Amino acid sequence: MAFRRISDSAVRRLSHYLRLLESFEAAGQRTISSDDLAARGGMTSAQVRKDLSHFGSFGKRGLGYPVPVLRARITEILGLDKRWNVCLVGAGKLGAALHQYGGFRRQGFDIVAIFDNDSTRIGRRWGDVRIDDVADLPAVVRARRVEMGVIVTPAEAAQEVADDLVRAGVEAILNFAPRKVDVPDEVILRDVNLAIELETLSFALTHKGRIPTTR
Amino acid sequence: MAFRRISDSAVRRLSHYLRLLESFEAAGQRTISSDDLAARGGMTSAQVRKDLSHFGSFGKRGLGYPVPVLRARITEILGLDKRWNVCLVGAGKLGAALHQYGGFRRQGFDIVAIFDNDSTRIGRRWGDVRIDDVADLPAVVRARRVEMGVIVTPAEAAQEVADDLVRAGVEAILNFAPRKVDVPDEVILRDVNLAIELETLSFALTHKGRIPTTR
DNA sequence: GACCGCTTGTGAAAACTATCACAAAAGCCC
DNA sequence: GGGCTTTTGTGATAGTTTTCACAAGCGGTC
């Protein structure tokens, strides 16, 4: 069978569409045109149609897309029609913020384990999850069938934690530590660096996005 | 004068180079080749040279780039050779995580004001910054010459906060609330959506990045 | 059932980004 | 100073993503 690559930006837009569709559905809207969806999401209608067309054609010409069907289909495309077991490595402030953030649970991500290496934190509970010693990570990750790991440790610890996660069988890692971590090709890795976001703002304000040609 | 647009991804790579250069400099390394820099950063050497060449030529053929000079130049290019006054709107867990995150201060971002609408939080201090009532945002933002605002409120409040920030003269906004906010063209806006990051992981695990062609 | 207004789905074109590959330095050694 | 090695800077090339533009399909109306 032939396969097509879907670009990362297209996948991110799908997430975005999903959020919009959920709010349209909650408001009782039955159908939506690519034009309306685009207007609400700040993109173009051609982009919306192209993105959706990669996965089949579920719109009706003249009418638009049926909101509940499209919402369900994107949920499925994104793999959000199942629940994912996620662990948090690092029980600091950022870990706490992610833990209490309702958006994860709502979209199918269950935080089933939390690790730290600080004995004053180990043993505490966040909601109904106990903070475990990071030394027990391999055993706990296996026992709870953790599929994704989120690294919210200081930079120094990130690589070691990533190695442990991989050895324990985690398939995907979201890394918030500000350093590059290496993982085998078959493990999905995504980095989020909060400082970089502010730095791009600084660049934009400094240069208004353009710089003099050097020649 | 002719101007050139620098792509967003190139700017993000500059941030990345900067971080690497800082660690090379701390280690006492005097020069570095595009090849080494690329290897450490997980990109190609041609990419590194192309990115840098947009801003002039500071390498020496046969030798590489002088680490301190390049570090200083990228700092300047990113606009990090000055300090930026930043405010945090929302004194919840995510706000707390950003506040204590050392990377901001180190790169030149000073959190000079924090706002919330919860009376149990207003009046408290985080470090030496008092949490102010969001109703006072316009006055405080002006008084403290805040240039960038970070929105870490629930989704419902985001647009109103953005409007207030813009009216108070903030030039750039980093939005962590999971909804689209509208700002005038001249205000720089960047969104960070933590749920989307996990959703792209879910997509990748579900499909291994490719999907069957529909025709 | 023929026309009309609207909206999809999609090839083709345009715009943008990354990679290649190589001539032109620069340092070094004899 | 000539030859050798290394590495930059950059046109040319290849690849990817977005936008354009329009035929085809659908529902409604007369």
Mean pLDDT of chain A: 95
Tell me the strand percentage band of chain A: 15-25%
Poorly predicted segments of chain A: none
What pattern of helices and strands is seen along the backbone of chain A? EHEHHEHEHHEEEHEHEEHE
**Could you state the oligomeric state of the chains shown?**
homodimer
What is the helix fraction of residues of chain A, given as a range? 40-55%
Instruction: Please identify the structural class of chain A as seen in this structure.
Output: alpha/beta
Biggest sheet: strand arrangement of chain A: 6-7-5-4-8-9-10
Major sheet details of chain A: 7 strands, mixed
Provide a descriptive summary of the structure in words.
The structure is a homodimer of 215-residue chains. Chain A is globular. Chain A has 215 residues and is of the alpha/beta class. In chain A, 37% of the residues are buried. Chains A and B meet through strand 1, helix 1, helix 5, helix 9 and strand 11 of A and strand 1, helix 1, helix 5, helix 9 and strand 11 of B. The first copy, chain A, binds a DNA duplex (30 and 30 nucleotides) through helix 3.
